[in-house]
Design brief:
Layout (H helix, E strand, L loop, with lengths): L11 E7 L2 E6 L15 E5 L17 H13 L4 H10 L6 H9 L18 E4 L2 E3 L2 H11 L8 E5 L5 H10 L4 E6 L2 H12 L4 H6 L2 E5 L14 E7 L5 H5 L18 H5 L3
Parallel strand pairs: 3-9, 6-7, 6-9, 7-8
Antiparallel strand pairs: 1-2, 4-5
């Protein structure tokens, strides 16, 4: 197949200020240096032009739908994982049967700090200056990447935190695929493994198709590259080159505020 010349494409979208901050996001389409493989791949990356300290209870997408959802959920006391998924379906965040099944199967309560409102549509602090994203953000990631999380595919979760999204990836790609989580905080990796051992994804952890590693996520995890999907749960001024190198051709994006993609030392110092 004759390839076109390599192209790097950037798109910018302005989001109204949140607490006096304006944020810009970009998507990066990888230059096609080799013939495309049988399916395109996707990377989900959000960046901010400002320093990205996390406000109290504060992840957002710039979409008024999610703001309405949050007000409704605050008044509705959802106390079941299935109820959380049904609300995400009702508001159109979850649109596919597969994503709904996976999020019903992986109980979010196993991945949040004890005493937390597990099904509230809000990010939560998990220690070490890290967070677990709001349910609608996880649903959005899974929905965007669904075509690249088919059985047998490979997925990488950078900044895997408590392990929730990595577990969801693992159920999507199944035992024939590989779902890899990387986090540079050893305590979080230990926590994520314990969380997954209590979840429906435990058999995949046992057979090795799901794995969590301590490492610098900016370097990716080359062992199972190239990946059909890479999710980066942190903000960066640009996509680290190793992640681009480990990604199959293609790309997709959405906008969200995340904590910075940084070194372990900087994170523990509070950036």
């Amino acid at each position: 197949m004759k390839m076109s010349s390599s192209v790097v494409a950037y798109s910018f979208r302005h989001i109204p200020p949140l607490k006096q901050r304006s944020i810009r996001y970009f998507s990066h389409q990888r230059p096609l240096r080799r013939p495309p493989l049988c399916s395109p791949c996707s990377v989900l990356v959000a960046t901010s032009t400002s320093s990205c300290s996390l406000p109290n209870s504060a992840s957002f997408t710039g979409n008024s739908l999610f703001r309405r959802m949050e007000r409704y959920w605050a008044a509705s006391s959802i106390n079941k994982n299935k109820g959380m998924v049904e609300h995400l379906q009702r508001y159109g965040v979850i649109q596919s049967k597969k994503v709904a099944e996976v999020m019903e199967t992986v109980d979010r309560a196993l991945f949040v700090p004890d005493g937390s409102s597990a099904y509230e549509d809000s990010p939560m602090q998990i220690g070490f200056n890290a967070t677990i994203s709001a349910p609608h953000m996880h649903a959005t990631c899974l929905q965007l990447l669904e075509k690249n999380l088919q059985p047998g595919m490979h997925a990488l979760d950078v900044g895997s935190g408590t392990g929730y999204l990595t577990a969801c990836f693992a159920l999507m790609v199944g035992p024939q695929g590989h779902a890899i989580g990387v986090d540079h905080i050893p305590e979080l990796v230990t926590m994520s493994i314990k969380n997954i051992e209590k979840s429906a994804a435990a058999p995949l952890l046992k057979d090795g198709s799901l794995a969590l590693h301590v490492g610098d996520g900016r370097e990716g995890w080359v062992e199972f590259a190239p990946y059909d999907a890479i999710h980066v749960g942190a903000a960066a001024p640009e996509i680290p080159q190793p992640l681009i190198d480990q990604l199959k051709p293609g790309g997709s994006e959405t906008s969200v505020r995340y904590v910075p993609l940084t070194s372990r030392e900087a994170q523990l110092r509070g950036y």
